[in-house]
Structure formats: structure tokens, C-alpha cells
Amino acid sequence: MTRKDLSDLIFSKIEKNQDILSKQFEDSKNKIGFFYIDDLLPEEIAIQIHENFPKPSEMVLKKSIRENKYIAAQMDLYHPILEDIIYAFQDERIVKLVAKICAIKEAFPDDKLYAGGISLMGKNQFLNPHLDNSHDKERERWRVLNLLYYVTPDWDIKNGGNLELWPNGLSEKQITIESKFNRLAVMATHNHSLHSVSPVVVDIERKCVSNYYFSNAPLSSTDTFHVTSFRGRPENKITDLILKTDTWLRMNLRKIFKKGVKENPHYYKKGSKN
Description:
Jelly Rolls
């Protein structure tokens, strides 16, 4: 199964369902646009991707008040199928088709995997409500779409670890999109696309393949530059206050240091295994 084979399968599945997916995105775009499609790949391929995920000890742990998860972007350290599935989503045909479904004039994949790659969450791990960084690594293009492909077999919504969208802010109930096995979820990223991953409550690893698409223009004319901006969950008022202060401080630092005080290490350094 080559990268081209994977791209062909993904493109065919999305193309066959594009009318349904376009309506799903259209119906939700006034808040946080999204769509999802199940059974993206033949089951045996999705299982192979799952089985070849690295162990947590072979990944980078990001643990703070903001988040608690394992990530990896240096894909040449791992089984080739993981790099192939990530870059299969960057096939030009798929990028154009997904952009069309989401009514975006142009979109570009990110071969550097800036904040993309693979992620893994075990029991008690989470990702607090946040807005993704508005731009790419070089701060030249706008982040417009987030593609999340879930590969843990038999995942149940009761396990936690599900994608949550907060279109009306933290004062109203979230939309929950289950991290269902072999499901691709696509969501818009803009100044109001607050989202999170609920805490995992079982001793099972929730595994995800991530990609971002970028554009020369933001999704909304009112969008502005912002760093990754975290909030606390509605029940965690003190955490929310701390994280809002944290975002304010980092935003002010960016006014002085355009690309940050130090380089974000979460990207693919091709040809440099480390």
C-alpha cells in the first residue's frame, strides 16, 4: 500500500460523499464549520496505522495546565505507514476537494507538519479549550482547516478523548464529535473556532493523525493574528483565569518577537533524525 494508494482511497471516499459533506459544513459554517466522514479507509489499513503507532516513551510529552498529550512530528523515526498516511492527506487532489467542500478558494498543505503529525492520549490526558495559532510556522499563511483522522479501534464516546467544539463560547454546551475509529473530522480554524479534547477516562490510548491546511487569506475578514490561546473548561474557573493571563502575556511577547522568543520544535525536520 503506497502513499499514492492511500491518497486514491481517501480521495475516492470523500468525492463520493462530497454533497453530504458540503451540506454538513454549510449548515455549521456560521459558527464553527465542520464535517466528518466514517470508514475513511478499508478497516485493515486503519488497523495497521493504529498498530504501528510508536509507544508513548518514543514520543514527546506535552504536559502543562494547557494540555497533557503525546505528540510526534519527526516522522522518519517511525514506521513508514505513519508518514505515508499523513502526507496522503496532502495530495493536491484531496486538498482541492476538501477546500471545495468547505467553500475555500485556495488551500495549501504543510509539509513541515507545523503542530501536525501524530498524537496519543492515555488515561487522564486532555487538551483544554483553545484557538489554534492563526498562522503557519513562518507566519506567512493563515491556518484555515484542521484535519483529524482517528485510528483507535472500538473507541466509545464514553471513553472521553473526543473532539469538542464550542461555537457559542464556554457558557453554552459544546458540540461533541466522537473520536470514532476510522473517522476523519475536518473543522475550520479562525478567531472563533474554540475547541478541545475531553479528558480520556479509560486506560486505552486514543490515537490521531493530524494535518493543517493554510491559505493566503483568513476565513473571515475580521480574523486577526493570535498565538495558540487556551482557556479552562467551564467548571475550572481558576484555570481559565490563569490561561487567559498566559495568553495575554504571550500575545504581548509576539508584538516584540514576531516569530516567538524561541522556535517551536513541533515540526518535521526532514533529513535530520533526532
